Amino acid sequence: MAGNQPRMLNWSERYKIIEGTARGVLYLHEYSRLKVIHRDLKPSNILLDENMNPKISDFGMARIVEIDQDRGKTKRIVGTYGYMSPEYAMFGQFSEKSDVFSFGVMVLEIITGKRNINHHESHYITYGLMNDVWRQWKDEKLMSILDPNLKGSYSHDEVIKCIQIGLLCVQENQDIRPTMTRVVSYLDGHTFELPSPQEPTFLLRDKMDQKTDAQYISINKMSVSTFCPR
């Protein structure tokens, strides 16, 4: 698709990316011969083929862990602002649930067409998108956060479900985030009643390694090129 002009993704394409990415993360966590925690899930690491099938890429920060290992810890925190879970950004703790958090951020970005970070300054990171989504969730005005480029061509029920899944995945307490098995079940419609999310965290103290090459990923215009077609 090199040389093609970027175009906006419609809702069915976005939903396909959400669903396919969820299955990809589930495979890494549960079905791969070696259990893998990616640690850097973000839109630029999701490759798309011509049929909009997503494939997770860039395993440079991934950790292979024992099948029965629940979580790990590192002193050198590297990654991308806006997609790191609070426990990883603050304390270097990573697990399947830190990947779940990153997935949840991507879901909310795909729905809104906006990035998660508003600003990063003086050792603090503000997660502005989650703040906006949570406020509209509480006010029951969820359609107001939908990317206006969708222009009515979407499934209302699927949008609401995906927003709820996104909020559940970005819960501050990792123990109440769903597993990717549960997320896929939600997306497949096998679980009809989703739990109610709690308020996510909007402000983090930055303890990240300042030598990292982490970059802000802007998806103000959600296009095919955002997800790096191959």
UniProtKB/TrEMBL annotation:
It holds the Pfam family Pkinase. Residues 1-193 form the Protein kinase domain. It is found in: Membrane. The keyword Transit peptide does not apply. This is Cysteine-rich receptor-like protein kinase 5. Its main location: membrane. The keyword Transferase applies. It is a single-pass membrane protein. Keywords: ATP-binding, Glycoprotein, Kinase, Membrane, Nucleotide-binding, Receptor, Repeat, Serine/threonine-protein kinase, Signal, Transferase, Transmembrane, Transmembrane helix. PROSITE patterns: PROTEIN_KINASE_DOM, PROTEIN_KINASE_ST.
